[in-house]
Amino acid sequence: MKIETKLQEFVVKAIEGLYGRTVPMEQASLQKTKKEFEGHLTLVVFPFLKLSGKSPEQTAREIGEWLVANTSETRSFNVIKGFLNLTVAGSCLLQELNSVHAAGNYGIRKVEPDAPLVMVEYSSPNTNKPLHLGHVRNNLLGFALSEILKANGKRVLKTNIVNDRGVHICKSMLAWQKWGNGETPESSGKKGDHLVGDYYVLFDKYYKAELAGLQGKGLSKEEAEAQSGLMAEAREMLRKWEAGDAETVELWKMMNLWVYAGFDETYKKLGVDFDEIYYESETYLDGKDTVRNGLKNNILYQKEDGSIWIDLSPEGLDHKLLLRSDGTSVYMTQDIGTAQQRFKAHKDLSEMIYVVGNEQNYHFQVLSIVLDKLGYEFGKGLVHFSYGMVELPEGKMKSREGTVVDADDLIEEMVSTARATSEELGKLDGATEDEADNIARIVGMGALKYFILKVDPKKNMTFNPKESIDFNGNTGPFIQYTYARIQSVTRKASEQGLSIPASLPANIELTAKEEDLIQSIIDYDTVVKQAGDGYNPALIANYIYDLVKEYNQFYHDCTILKEENTALRDFRLVLSQNTGKIIKSGMSLLGIDVPDRM
What we know:
Layout: H1 3-19, E1 30-32, E2 41-44, H2 49-52, H3 56-70, E3 74-80, E4 83-88, H4 90-102, E5 117-121, H5 133-151, E6 155-162, H6 167-179, H7 185-188, H8 192-216, H9 221-227, H10 229-242, H11 246-270, E7 276-279, H12 280-296, E8 301-302, E9 308-311, E10 319-323, H13 331-345, E11 349-357, H14 361-373, E12 382-387, E13 390-391, H15 407-424, H16 433-453, E14 461-462, H17 465-468, H18 476-495, H19 512-522, H20 524-533, H21 537-557, H22 566-589
Parallel strand pairs: 5-6, 5-11, 6-7, 11-12, 13-14
Antiparallel strand pairs: 1-2, 2-4, 3-4, 8-9, 9-10
């Protein structure tokens, strides 16, 4: 039983013994003591004041005195207003460390066959452009969230919906048809997604020129857009595609295959994957059928131009378009069809989590209500994992103007910078070329992933490549270097013929630094659960950073291999090994590798 749980039970007994009343365990919740105060765990006593009839300070003091007198687990206490800070006995901390040491995968819960099934959707790219920095944050968050939910004992299906149809896709197709001269990834030497993205930008260039010409003739911006021949051709291409026109469909297939091949390369570099991939081209028809059925059942209504809408004013929202007047679908139509297919394919699906930026908050609010109104119970249970935008120090990015930060370019820059920085600091001395390349890849990708994942997902963030590769501070390379340092300690121990014991005696005298480090290690189990419950990978990232800081202070203050006291040396080896174990486990949940040597 964990020390927090034991102490909770003792607090309940203390309340009963002192005040003759029984309280539920959850009322006796303990939190980690803040750094500025002495102690390991803190009890808030305000819920017990009615029972004690005394001041917060006196109530806290009485409970603390009872715990010290009646339990071997509580060494001492101090009171700060209504907060009781408890210092756990060193023998109990050693017992907890032994439990972590014996556990093969501490903090990670086993996934049982009948565990709740959760689907996490992330990436959701459009096939008219390559992945960019915004997609990088999306993919890293989605993958990390999936791994954290698995670590909390849930069955997880990682899924991707590819937006492979629509007028934006037709813009790239039309531009290639008009100005491509048969160019292919092979003839151009470009990745397929980059090539198609170039034509999306080219369409916008000609479209803007056309609008400027029309406006030069005296038309307003809105009138020019309405008379645009290029946009009319793109919409006609979409209509033909939805009608199954053979030539249009063949062009669409060819260009999409180019893009898929490019996406796969980028996903591999990012280290993310999917269990299932859905395509909008295969789900939107189900959505259209459902919308038409909703119209028949008077849940939806049709305007004079033939478009189909839903009135959400009773819910405090507006009217939402579900099918255009020309019969073509919108994103909402596709999402309705996709949700239907998923819940039909997985009857036991308990939760559907959409990892999508906060600019789509309204969209998912509407999707949940629309599905519920159309008679699908699962509509109420949809979860929008809404995250903030990511920018560079230079500002926002725009796909149509070709000013986005390409994911492949960013990855290449990160690995290259990691190689240069590592060489400059002497971290690659003695490494072979292959080893240096591998370390540069691990460090570069670790820097990128950690810098993005350490930020609360709900917040907007600025990604600074140079800051992310700093070997000091709250960065991936700092954590990776500490892990490599720990592996160096255990290697040297092995070279000296020292073996790490399977368990530790309970009578070792611990320093304050050692106690703090043990407490940090123990906390991993709680942090993994909190990150899963709160859908927040940043909790894991920042916990690991704090753990690494604790270890480095311990490493600086305490002798390990040269310690003459054998029991103390063995304890510090066990402490080091388990710190490394937790670092590796936590970073793995974030999709980050840690190198054995640096």
